[in-house]
From TrEMBL, chain A:
Residue ranges of the TM segments: 6-30, 42-61, 91-108
InterPro entries tied to this protein: Brnchd-chn_aa_trnsp_AzlD (IPR008407)
UniProt protein name: Branched-chain amino acid transport protein
Keywords of this entry: Membrane, Transmembrane, Transmembrane helix
Domain of life from the UniProt record: Bacteria
A UniProt-annotated Pfam family: AzlD
UniProtKB/TrEMBL annotation, chain B:
Pfam families, per database record: AzlC (PF03591)
Membrane-protein topology: Multi-pass membrane protein
Transmembrane spans: 20-40, 69-86, 135-160, 166-182, 189-207
Primary localisation category: membrane
GO annotation, biological process: L-valine transmembrane transport
Family: Belongs to the AzlC family.
Domain of life: Bacteria
Stored InterPro entries: Brnchd-chn_aa_trnsp_permease
Subcellular location: Cell membrane
Name of the protein described by the UniProt record: Predicted branched-chain amino acid permease (Azaleucine resistance)
Transmembrane helix as UniProt keyword: yes
Keywords carried by this UniProt record: Cell membrane, Membrane, Transmembrane, Transmembrane helix, Transport
CC annotations in GO: plasma membrane
Length: 109, 238
């Protein structure tokens, strides 16, 4: 039942090394060499593609509700997105989103 | 003069990174709790967080190990969860590639969802920053985020109790990231990239090992690049 100590340390060390390599490969090997235009054009959209893809399932199927759609969480996400888009102020968007979430959870009882 | 700009860039980074305390603190604490419950001692738990420094991958590996999966399966699954870090690294290279190698190694170690998202938003917005200023800013963003990852892992391992449910801190991750992404949606190409990525992330959520995320991200990036290309041809029909 308990985790094998050798397995544990192999995973900790190899996962640490592997994660570092994933993070270092481009920064370390490409450095300041000029990348082709088409690569740069794709990289410009990395953040706006990866981060929404990362959070979309958390918004639609929150683990806290066992994966069922939750009006409070959904409206909090919509308010955050809209207020961030319109005001361009992330901190304000976080505050409005959190307020919406707690209000929604309170109303839902 | 140059010194004072890098210093002020550092403090801008600290300010912009600070809200992510809310995300990282509870998540790290939860890891401390779960690892302790899985039978890891304090040293092992802390080593996990310090060596790996990637929440989702740590949870994946720990979960599989406690189900008695083969170590190599736990390792590969957790690395798959972390594949997005390679995309972060590529995306930030045009901004930080000119730094000395040891600084790039430091950036690589601290390149996590939060530090990447905050920094790349800033670098896109302020194109006139020097690599030194960008580095100072990145270190600033990292300062309230990464050390707290260690500290709260420790708190979780020692206190051993989770955060109360009514705080709904599970939703701190979506809210903070959405707040950061929304202002980055400057053009139709950005919006198209995000919409395609969201649709495919939901459609491919059934894929194992977070691979749906990679499919969605790559398709989103290709969409953004194509829309940009079409828009620029329309503007400049050469």
């Amino acid at each position: 039942m308990s985790i094998d100590r050798l397995d544990l340390w192999i995973v900790i060390l190899a996962l640490g090394a592997g994660s570092f390599l994933l993070r270092f490969t481009f920064l370390g090997l490409v450095g300041d060499r000029q990348m082709p235009d088409w690569v740069l054009r794709h990289l410009r959209y990395t953040a706006v593609a990866v981060l929404p893809a990362l959070v979309a399932p958390m918004v639609i199927w929150p683990s806290a509700t066992g994966g069922s759609l939750d009006p409070a969480r959904l409206s909090a996400a919509v308010v955050t997105l809209l207020s961030g888009y319109l005001t361009k102020k992330p901190l304000l968007a976080i505050l409005l989103g959190a307020a919406t979430l707690y209000l929604g959870l309170y109303l839902a009882g | 003069m140059a010194r004072s700009t890098t210093k002020s860039r550092f403090w801008q980074g600290v300010r912009d990174g600070a809200p992510f305390l809310l995300v990282v603190g509870p998540f790290a604490m939860l890891f401390g709790v779960v690892a302790t419950e899985a039978g890891l001692n304090l040293f092992e738990t802390m080593a996990f967080s310090i060596v790996v420094i990637a929440g989702a991958a740590q949870f994946t590996a720990l979960q599989l190990l406690s189900e008695n999966a083969l170590a190599v399966i736990a390792l590969i699954s957790a690395l798959a969860v972390n594949l997005r870090m390679a995309m972060y690294s590529a995306s930030i290279t045009p901004y930080l590639g000119a730094l000395p190698l040891w600084k790039r190694a430091i950036v690589a170690y601290f390149l996590v969802d939060q530090t990447y998202a905050v920094s790349v938003a800033k670098f896109e917005r302020e194109t006139d920053m020097t690599p030194r200023e960008r580095y100072a800013y990145f270190i600033g963003v990292m300062s309230p985020v990464c050390p707290l990852w260690y500290v709260f892992t420790l708190v979780g391992a020692l206190v051993g109790s989770a955060i109360p449910d009514w705080l709904a801190l599970d939703f701190a991750v979506p809210i903070t990231f959405l707040a950061l992404i929304a202002p980055m949606l400057r053009t139709g190409a950005h919006v198209a990239a995000a919409v395609v990525a969201i649709a495919l992330a939901l459609g491919f959520a059934w894929l194992p090992y977070n691979l749906g995320l990679l499919v969605a991200a790559l398709a989103g990036m290709m969409t953004g690049a194509q829309v940009e290309l079409i828009a620029s041809r329309r503007e400049d029909p050469a």
